[in-house]
What does this fold into?
Amino acid sequence: MTVPDAATSLHVLMTADSVGGVWQYALDLAGGLRAHGVRTTVAVLGPAPSADQQTMAKAAGADLVVTGLPLDWTASHQGEVKEASQSISRLATQIRPDLIHLNSPALAADGQFDMPVVAACHSCVATWWQAVKGGSLPEDFIWRTELVRLGYAAASKLLAPTRAFAQATAEAYDLAQPPLVVRNGRRALQGETNVRSDIFVFMAGRLWDEGKNFAAIDRMAARLSIPVLAAGSLQGPNAARIEARHAKALGRLSDEDVAQYLSKQPIFVSTALYEPFGLAVLEAAQAGCALVLSDIPTFSELWEGAALFVDPRDEREAADAVERLAQDPDARAVLGRAARKRAEAYTVEAMSEGVLNAYRSVLAGTSHVSSLEGAAA
It folds into this structure.
């Protein structure tokens, strides 16, 4: 197989969903790869992308194929995942990409692809359960975990966004080597700068996901003298739901709307119990927000020295940290500058170069070389 160089057009078929951070990852990556002559077709599983998400795809130069296929973590039985895998395989046969990038590795479980497969380990039910619940997996998580295990085994190369999550993945699936670490990047959101505003707390993400631990932030809000605003859906595609009793729920916001809130440089808080990377944190850091984050391995790896860390299960500790910052604009400014400086390491350009190097190694036949030291570290 010929290995494309920078001047050779490479066509990648990438899977994505419009529900969470994978969408931003896929389109930022597609846009970054386009600068290297790579053409990306994005096959969307799960809910159809919204109008603003479709606009994002067009701006990134990605060709969208909305499949209507179920996500592996919302499927009612493993047959649905296998059918989705077969459908993506048929799509690959039709468009003949050089390589497949699966953001849902379970789709590789049947191993029916005729071209190399790179699988990104964004999250999985096994590591989610370990971080959020602990103990034995429930029955409907067991078959999902097995499909992910088979998908990992079938892939030519695995990618992970942090060393901590690479290690957690290797341990959960008994991998001989951890996935290659290529840290995520994020296109900086464009909002008005230096907009004066009364201080407030902001968070963004899948509020319905127990791993995001919005319940703790909602309880924290009852203790604060400043408002807490939360962007994201309260109900997920898997029927999970949560209520906002003290925080103000804003619903799902477009990137532009999020940028407007972040431009006011609120205190950004995440009490996540499970976060393989955290693109919302990166967006806040790029905007110069002071960060108050869970003391979990991934956040420590990424933001040590540029954030305040709290016990995610102790809303009193989180509230005290936020209240201190709310009363100390100088401390907020120092933390915000530190966060913005750290965010400069997590760029779309670095992510794209790291992923492209992984593609090239697979196409060159060095598919099983893995390391914790990713090209975009």
Remarks:
- The two ends are 29 Å apart (CA to CA).
- The chain has 13 helices and 13 strands.
- The domain at 201-343 is CATH 3.40.50.2000 (Rossmann fold).
